Amino acid sequence: MTLTSFGPANRIQRSAETHPLTWRLRDDGEAVWLDEYQAKNGYAAARKAFADMSQDDIVQTVKDAGLKGRGGAGFPTGVKWGLMPKDESINIRYLLCNADEMEPNTWKDRMLMEQLPHLLIEGMLISARALKTYRGYIFLRGEYTTAAKHLNRAVEEAKAAGLLGKNILGSGFDFELFVHTGAGRYICGEETALINSLEGRRANPRSKPPFPAAVGVWGKPTCVNNVETLCNVPAIIADGVDWYKSLAREGSEDMGTKLMGFSGKVKNPGLWELPFGVTGRELFEDYAGGMRDGFKLKAWQPGGAGTGFLLPEHLDAQMYAGGIAKVGTRMGTGLAMAVDDSVNMVSLLRNMEQFFARESCGFCTPCRDGLPWSVKLLMAIEQGKGQPGDIETLLGLVGFLGPGKTFCAHAPGAVEPLGSAIKYFRPEFEAGIAPASAAVPPLARPIVIGA
Question: What are the residue boundaries of the NADH-ubiquinone oxidoreductase 51kDa subunit iron-sulphur binding domain, all occurrences included (predicted)?
C-alpha cells in the first residue's frame, strides 16, 4: 500500500512542517529502516524527551497539544494518560498499541506500520517514558503479515541501537517492546477485549469501571492507544504545542493532521495526510478525483463501516469530529467510502450487518440476538419477501441497539449505518416488502420504542 498525494493541481510536497506523519515516506513505498529514519531526524524527539523533559512534562505537552485518539473514539490522549496512577510504588505498568485495525474500509495504520515502523516505536518509547511503563505490546491484526515482519525487524534494530531494552539512552529507564499477533476478531478493537485476548482469554469486553488505567493487563495499570495516535507523539515533542495546533484548518476543534482516504468507484482511491477541517468535498473531488466516468455518487460514509451514511450534499461538512457530527454521524477513522448509483442499499446493508453479526462476541443479548435478527429481515427484504412491519422492526432494533443499550460500542456502531440508510433510502427498503396478498405472518411483532 503506497500513500498517494495529489492536490487540486500539483503534487503535494510533504515536509516535516506540514506532514508530521508522512514526510519521511519513500516514493517507492519501501520501509524506512533505522539508518534512514535517523538521518531524517528520527528518534530526535525521544532523545529530547529523555534528556530535557520530565514524565509530567511529556504528559502535559501532549494534553496541551489537543491530541485525540485516532482509532475512532476520539478521546483526548493526554487526559487518558493522566488517568494512569501517580503512585511510584506501582512499578509494573503496561503500554498497549491497538493495531488490530479490523474496521472495514480502513487501512491507515497498516501503511504506517509497513512503511514507517520506527515512527510507531519512537512514539511508544516516548509514551512509555511519560507513563512509566516498563513493557509494551503492539497488538497486531493477524492478517497483517508484512507489518508484523517489518515491526519485528524494527524492534530488533532499535534494541541493537540501545533505543529499547535496558538503560535506554543512559537514562536508567527500561522498556521492552513485543509484537503480538491476534487471531482475527473485530471486537479486539475494543480495548478491554484486546486486553482479554492478549492474556489468552476469550475476546469479550470487560465491565468498566475499573478502567484499564487502574486494572488492565494481568491486573496492572495499562494504557491503550491507537497506532496513528502514538505516531503523532514524536512530532508534538519535537516541534511543540503551538506548531501542532496550527496545522488544523480554521474552524476545526480537532488539532493537527489526520490520515484520511477515499475508496469505492472514485478515480484516485488513496490515503492522504491532511489537516483537520478540510471538507469532505475537497477530499472527494480534489484528492480522490470524484467518481469514475459512468458512475454518480449516491452516498458516502466518512470513516469506516460503523459510521452513518451521508448524501452528496453533506460533502461540504468539515472533516473533524464536530464537523461531521453536525451532519448527523461520526468522523470514525476518517477513511471514507463512496457508494455509487449502481448499488442497492438493502444489499449493501445486508452485507454489512452480516459482518457485524458474525463479529459480535455474543456477551450481551441485544447484540447477540439483535444483529442476526436484522440480517434475517434484510435478507427477506432483499429477496422481495419482506413483510409489513419489517422496516419498523429494523428501526426498533436501531433504537434498542443504540448507544448505552449494550455492553460495549460494537452494536451501536453496527446499526448506525442501518438507521441512516433507512432514513435516506427508505423507498429501496419498501420495494422489498411483499404485497399484502402474498404476505405471511411476520417474523415477529414490530418493536415500538417506548411502548
Answer: 346-391
Helical packing angle, 227-239 and 55-65, nearest 10°: 100
Q: What is the pTM of this model?
A: 0.91
What size, in residues, is the chain?
A: 451
CA distances from 81 to 131, 172, 213 (A): 7, 22, 8
Scored b (16 or more CB within 10 A) or e, 291-308 reads: beeebebbbbbbbbbbbb
Check residue 72 and give its pLDDT: 77
Indicate if 135 and 272 belong to the same structural domain: no
User: How many angstroms separate the CA atoms of 117 and 129, rounded?
Assistant: 19
Domain ends where: 216, 245, 274?
245
Same domain? For 354 and 308 the reply is no
* Nearest CA among 86, 84, 108 for reference residue 98: 108
Strand partners, 176: 135
pLDDT digits (tens, 9 = 90+) for 365-375: 999 999 999 99
- The parent domain of residue 403 ranges over 345-438
* Parallel/antiparallel/unpaired status of strands 94-99 and 222-226: parallel
DSSP structure class, residue 89: T
Omega into 210 within 30° of 0, i.e. cis? yes
Measured distance CA(134)–CA(445) in Å, rounded: 55
Whole-angstrom distance, CA of residue 280 vs CA of residue 318: 6
pLDDT, mean of residues 208-233: 95
Radius of gyration of the chain (CA): 23
Give the chain's domain count.
3
φ and ψ of 382, to 5 deg: -60, -35
Question: Which has the closest alpha carbon to 215: 230, 235, 196?
Answer: 196
Label residue 87 exposed, middle or buried (CB < 10 Å: 0-12, 13-18, 19+). Answer: exposed
What are the residues facing 338 on neighbouring strands? 300
